[in-house]
Inverse folding.
């Protein structure tokens, strides 16, 4: 039992540049010092299972793999390298491992992988960008370029990109479970001297029916260590699944109904003080000077810290700190962006788009067919400009972090989508060795992309270092809304050419600002001539990944304009989609299901409207039909019928929950969400001017799941992009007004609006 | 000195009487189940019961609790540890996602059921629309309340379980 861990992976140097992906050394195994088995499934280059074993193995435990261990009582613990923000990933990933392993579900629990390099989330960068989607050949150059960016993600541990199931789950958890099961069978076959083919597994037990023998995984673990793992363990077919595809209760829920769940906000460190913060209102401004005399005079205030672009007030309680922060008189440096506002940004987009068109300097996503010929031959050309505002994430739990700095070591308690990245960024900001920074992960009170950023953690660490006392930094709601990393404001201009027979001849789309995923503006429809292109038009407003990222705007743009095309072509918007999906049976089937379940053919009452959308994102297809009622100008969303095809629903109820969540998140943005820039700064500062959908506004959401058997897609984001266009299309039917700008609250539906220029 | 009963236990605090009750509960009493969301009574994450009524503790001065009975999410289960029917219903319906707002949601719902044991949709809208859930779990929260209320007919609420079973193999 004292074999060395077999190292057959590549060099352990930190990755740089574009990673070359290889299957070599995908799985390796060895014995742990002191007995037991370790299996590593390398989802990235250079994992170090020996170090991992030290981190996750407690005395008495047998570490079975990088993602699973068995203790002496037969308890199986999955070690899951993803954070929990309510998406249920930790439970579902455990489910995937346990199913392939034939483990007894009641014996399985999870721990979140520690923020160590060994858990770096390798395939994220690639998976995030490729998203399992079919990438048009024209896009591949962009993908290759973006992969250089993605290489940075190799040292991170991100939960995002709707990737937990489709990357970590499919490539990691299932493989680890299957490999573990095979080694258990080998161990039993060796012990009993019977052929492996005569052995079966179930409930954490290997059985030999012919001789009526059985041995538990706990008993077999050490013997299993003597065998080499198969580099390609055989995975179950869906009909063999016992846990995948079933609804299992989420591990994290019980503590969330009793108040026991510990969020970052709830971290308790002995002797800690509390900090409130005031950050430069204009992004990029610095502290010029400040007068904290009045703040320091307040009882309980202990420190005032100049962070360069922010001032923090530290006190014995948060309320004291927050009140005192209001009393600090801060002067900020002037910046070149002090006069920027939403209207100037909008004019900039239009000017940059016009310039790129005139100069031919745009970058192409898709160039197909003879676009100019099609427009020349068109019986009808329609044009429209669509726009979306900046959006904040507005997590329920405002940004916060607790930090302690002592003896050259820094500890941070927070909830983050990227614990390892947080460690590295904190270390870099404090000019420390990452080995001297510890990150204690907590539940996240919402993530949505916001908690992939580490600004609050870095601030807390700097305040703790500066003051010498442990500090819990809590942002006010206003700070949270005004210092986010925002879904960008984007403009998108369309032209479509329509033939005399109503045929869609050409689709021309130019837009500002491109991030990820690269295929977001691509349409699934069979239009022979297409030009989809963009020009960068950057602003000083910080960019952040916001649930579904670029799909959040392009889903709205393309699917709302498509309805304009259908109207011009004289066709029903559902039927035209159907017609142009003749070569995409998976898409067409899903669209048909949503239309059927929603009763698309039923008449719509006066003042009501029904709208449809189809969106493929993160490897999952979603079709939505939205029903609205517009009464005296007030829009109410009554019902959303949603059909989703993720390839396979590992947790059907969890998938339905993600669809409901994605729809409401997207609906809040579509109905009311706008972050406006005034004098270089964010105008909104509270839930009354940056509202969210509430109980009384929430539609009935019906989710219909299709398991098509295609590659497994994500769940966290795909529900979001399709709600805005379906809503806009429904409002058009109800009112005759095309919603080309979001949010919907900008419109007065007591009047019919034809031109978006009339707004803002 | 402010003295009140919280979850059945009498506590006295020597704090600024104008400080919001939220911070007295979280910082001075160390009970972190009650959450800070906005500090402006706009989101409901801080909801607790003051003499049985749901209040937003982030804008309620601690002095208002003088001599009163305060109940937080930690005090909702029975003394024997049996979950409140709402807590159990929340688990049964798998209602929470991130969970941050749920203490406040459950406290608002508990105050509703205390006065209206079988609320209809309009009553639920009225009682619950002060509580934001950014994960958008309103449908499940509504269903959980009806389940806890013991309503025979859960009208107008989508049952994802039924639908997924029905169409799983479409």
């Amino acid at each position: 039992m004292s074999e060395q861990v077999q190292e057959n992976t590549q060099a352990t140097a930190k990755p740089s540049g574009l990673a070359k992906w290889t299957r070599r050394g995908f799985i390796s195994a060895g014995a742990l010092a002191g007995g037991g088995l370790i299996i590593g499934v390398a989802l990235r280059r250079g994992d170090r299972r020996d170090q991992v074993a030290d981190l996750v193995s407690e005395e008495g435990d047998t570490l079975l793999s990088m993602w699973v261990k068995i203790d002496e009582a037969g308890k199986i613990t999955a070690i899951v390298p993803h954070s929990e923000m309510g998406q249920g990933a930790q439970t579902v990933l455990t489910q995937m491992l346990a199913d392939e392993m034939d483990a007894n579900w009641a014996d399985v629990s999870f721990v979140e992988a520690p923020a160590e390099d060994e858990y770096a989330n390798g395939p994220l960068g690639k998976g995030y960008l490729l998203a399992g989607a079919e990438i048009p050949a024209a896009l591949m150059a962009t993908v290759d370029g973006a992969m250089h960016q993605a290489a940075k993600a190799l040292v991170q541990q991100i939960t995002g990109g709707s990737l937990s199931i489709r990357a970590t789950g499919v490539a990691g958890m299932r493989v680890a479970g299957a490999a573990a099961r095979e080694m258990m069978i080998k161990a039993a076959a060796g012990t009993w001297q019977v052929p492996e083919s005569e052995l079966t597994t179930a409930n954490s037990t290997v059985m030999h029916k012919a001789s009526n023998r059985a041995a538990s995984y706990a008993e077999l673990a050490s013997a299993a260590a003597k065998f080499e793992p198969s580099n390609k363990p055989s995975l179950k077919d869906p009909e063999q699944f016992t846990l995948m595809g079933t609804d299992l209760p989420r591990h994290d829920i019980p503590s969330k109904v009793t108040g026991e769940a510990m969020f970052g906000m709830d971290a308790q460190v002995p002797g800690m003080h509390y900090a409130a913060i005031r950050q430069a209102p204009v992004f990029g401004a610095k502290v010029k000077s400040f007068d904290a005399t009045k703040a320091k005079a307040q009882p309980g205030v202990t420190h005032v810290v100049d962070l360069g672009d922010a001032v923090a007030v530290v006190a014995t309680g948060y309320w004291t700190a927050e009140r005192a922060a209001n009393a600090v008189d801060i002067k900020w440096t002037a910046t070149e962006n002090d006069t920027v506002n939403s209207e100037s940004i909008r004019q900039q987009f239009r000017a940059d788009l016009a310039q790129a068109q005139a100069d031919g300097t745009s970058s192409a996503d898709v160039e197909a067919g003879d676009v100019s010929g099609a427009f020349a031959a068109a019986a009808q050309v329609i044009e429209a400009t669509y726009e979306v505002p900046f959006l904040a994430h507005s997590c329920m739990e405002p940004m916060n972090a607790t930090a302690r700095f002592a003896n050259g070591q820094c500890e941070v308690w927070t909830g983050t989508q990227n614990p390892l990245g947080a460690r590295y960024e904190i270390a870099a900001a404090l000019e420390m060795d990452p080995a001297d920074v510890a990150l204690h992960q907590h539940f996240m009170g919402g993530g949505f992309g916001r908690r992939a950023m580490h600004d609050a953690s870095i601030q807390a660490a700097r305040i703790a270092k500066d003051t010498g006392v442990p500090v819990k930094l809590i942002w006010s709601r206003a700070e949270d809304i005004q210092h986010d990393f925002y879904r960008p404001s984007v403009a998108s201009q369309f032209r479509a050419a329509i033939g005399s027979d109503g045929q869609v001849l050409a689709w021309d789309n130019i837009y500002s600002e491109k991030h990820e995923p690269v295929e977001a503006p691509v349409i699934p429809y069979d239009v022979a001539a297409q030009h989809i292109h963009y020009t960068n038009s950057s602003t000083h407003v910080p960019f952040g990944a916001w649930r579904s990222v670029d799909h959040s705007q392009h889903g709205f743009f393309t699917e709302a304009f498509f309805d304009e095309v259908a109207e011009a072509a004289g066709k029903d918007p559902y039927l035209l989609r159907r017609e142009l999906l003749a070569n995409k049976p998976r898409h067409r089937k899903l669209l048909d299901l949503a239309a059927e379940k929603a009763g698309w053919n039923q008449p719509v009452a006066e003042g009501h409207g029904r709208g449809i959308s189809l969106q493929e994102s993160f490897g999952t297809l979603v079709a939505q039909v939205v029903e609205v009622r517009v009464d005296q100008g007030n829009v109410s969303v009554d019902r959303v019928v949603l059909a989703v095809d993720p390839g396979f629903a590992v947790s059907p109820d969890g998938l339905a929950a993600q669809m409901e969540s994605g729809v409401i998140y997207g609906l809040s943005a579509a109905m009311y969400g706008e972050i406006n820039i005034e004098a270089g700064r964010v105008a909104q500062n509270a839930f009354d001017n940056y509202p969210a959908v509430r109980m009384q506004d929430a539609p009935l959401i019906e989710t219909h799941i299709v398991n098509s058997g295609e590659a497994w897609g994500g769940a966290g984001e795909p529900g979001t992009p399709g709600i805005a266009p379906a809503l806009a299309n429904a409002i058009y039917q109800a009112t005759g007004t095309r919603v080309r700008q979001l949010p919907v609250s900008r419109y007065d539906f007591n009047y019919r609006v034809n031109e978006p220029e009339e707004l803002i | 000195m402010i003295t009140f009963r919280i979850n059945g236990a009498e506590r006295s605090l020597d704090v600024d009487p104008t400080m919001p009750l939220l911070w007295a509960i979280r910082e001075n009493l160390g009970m972190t189940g009650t959450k800070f969301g906005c500090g402006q009574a706009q989101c409901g994450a801080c909801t607790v019961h003051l003499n049985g009524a749901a209040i937003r503790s982030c804008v309620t001065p601690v002095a208002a609790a003088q001599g009163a009975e305060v109940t937080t999410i930690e005090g909702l289960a029975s003394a024997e540890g049996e979950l409140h029917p709402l807590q159990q219903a929340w688990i049964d319906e798998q209602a929470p996602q991130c969970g941050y707002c749920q203490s406040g949601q459950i406290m608002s719902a508990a105050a509703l059921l205390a006065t209206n044991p079988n609320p209809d949709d309009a009553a639920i809208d009225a009682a619950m629309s002060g509580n934001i859930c950014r994960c958008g779990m309103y449908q499940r929260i509504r269903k959980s309340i009806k389940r806890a209320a013991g309503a025979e007919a859960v009208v107008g609420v989508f049952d994802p379980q039924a639908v997924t079973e029905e169409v799983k193999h479409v």
